[in-house]
Design goal:
This protein is mainly α and about 375 residues long. Among the domains are: about 50 residues; about 130 residues, no CATH class. The chain contains 23 helices and no strands. The mean pLDDT is about 85. InterPro entries: DUF2336, UCP035865. It holds the Pfam family DUF2336.
């Protein structure tokens, strides 16, 4: 009888009165016992309000049900699919909506709807992944600004891959302490491309010079990234670089000469297909022929592999020294492979590239030291 009376009243009542009635109806629903017939009648009345022509009435209902864990699921789901301003309260706060519900809503909804989902407190990992996969840049920013969202390494990497051109997204990602190395690598490469495309840079330098400098800068940045990466991040970083064709002999040689042994060993493991312990054992204690066989199984030519073997033996010698750190390998390698101006060889080309990187890295280290000294003073 209550539902019939309510329906008759709703036909003539104004929108403001219907909105008040919607709030009162929701409160009454939560106060009634589950076995009370009036509770079912109240549910039917709320379902009827879902078709109310006034958005103010539907918003009042959405706001009243938003934070209630016992809100009727059918009504909450319908409100979540309504226009964004009405769906906002339930999408943002309703505990009735599951992660699967939110993923479905994100897939069917508009950019504004996904933005609302991205603001949700304690946003689940699966929902965040869905938004990272299909959301636009604005949604990515909202997601990254949600400090309570559970963002996995995969989500952070996908955000970097899809939105690295956005300065705001890059800054938000780089500010995160949990940003995985492979995502940071994506951002480094994008920054290099952005610098190469700068009108100021193009007006100042020639195209070949720009290509050389940006490639060198990207390589050095990647080397620093490699040196700071966590142990469990390195295999993924190696895989990404292999797929991108960036595991060049020059890069690997520089990693070995500069003491990035964790990365170098992981690269040898990935390229050779051997067990990680086996690779490390060969590098640490194996004879020269075993080391050469390992490196050649990774695709290095006989000529180049001999230089890598020599560098590995020098690394061992440095580590056996008192308080040895593995530094100075490159200088010792140059002494063992003297170069002449009029002779072109693959080894000379390799060592030239590595020497260039080494020289630039030393300059960067000197600048950092000078800055720290000036700051301390």
């Amino acid at each position: 009888m209550i539902i019939q009376a309510f329906l008759r009243w709703a036909e003539t009542a104004g929108a403001a009165d219907r909105a008040k009635a919607a709030r009162a109806l929701a409160k009454a629903y939560f106060r009634l016992r589950p076995d009370d017939p009036q509770k079912q009648a109240a549910l039917h009345a709320m379902i009827h309000l879902l078709d109310d022509p006034s958005s103010a009435v539907r918003f009042a209902l959405s706001e009243s049900l938003a934070e209630e864990p016992s809100a009727p699921r059918a009504v909450v789901l319908a409100l979540a699919e309504d226009q964004p301003d009405i769906a906002c309260p339930v999408i943002t706060f309703s505990p009735v909506l599951t992660d699967m519900d939110l993923v479905d809503i994100a897939g069917r909804g508009s950019s504004m709807t996904r933005g609302l989902i991205a603001t949700r407190p304690e946003l689940g990992r699966g929902v965040a992944a869905a938004i990272a996969e299909i959301g636009d840049t604005a949604e990515a920013v909202i997601l990254l600004e949600n400090d309570s969202a559970d963002l996995s390494r995969y989500v952070l990497k996908r955000l970097a891959e899809r939105h690295a051109r956005s300065c705001e997204v890059r800054n938000l990602l780089l500010d995160r302490e949990d940003l995985p190395a492979e995502a940071r690598d994506v951002l480094v490469r994008e920054i290099s491309r952005a610098l190469a495309g700068s009108l100021l840079v193009q007006a100042t330098l020639s195209a070949p010079r720009i290509a050389y400098l940006t490639e060198e800068a990207a390589t050095l940045a990647t080397l620093r990234l490699v040196g700071n990466a966590l142990s469990d991040e390195i295999p993924l970083l190696v895989q990404t670089m292999r797929e991108d064709g960036r595991l060049t002999s020059a890069f690997l040689m520089h990693a070995l000469c500069s003491g990035r042994i964790e990365f170098f060993a992981a690269a040898m493991t990935d390229l050779s297909g051997l067990d990680d312990r086996r690779v490390r054992s060969i590098m640490a204690t194996g004879r020269k022929h075993a080391i050469r066989a390992l490196y050649e199984s990774c695709g290095l030519s006989r000529e180049i592999s001999e230089v890598f073997v020599e560098a590995t033996m020098l690394w061992r010698e440095k580590l056996r020294e008192v308080q040895g750190s593995g530094e100075g390998i490159f200088d010792a390698l140059i002494e063992r492979y003297p170069r002449t101006v009029d002779t072109y060889t693959t080894i000379n080309e390799l060592l030239d590239i590595v020497e260039s990187l080494q020289r630039q890295e030393y300059r960067d280290m000197a600048r950092a030291y000078a800055e720290q000294t000036a700051y301390a003073a």
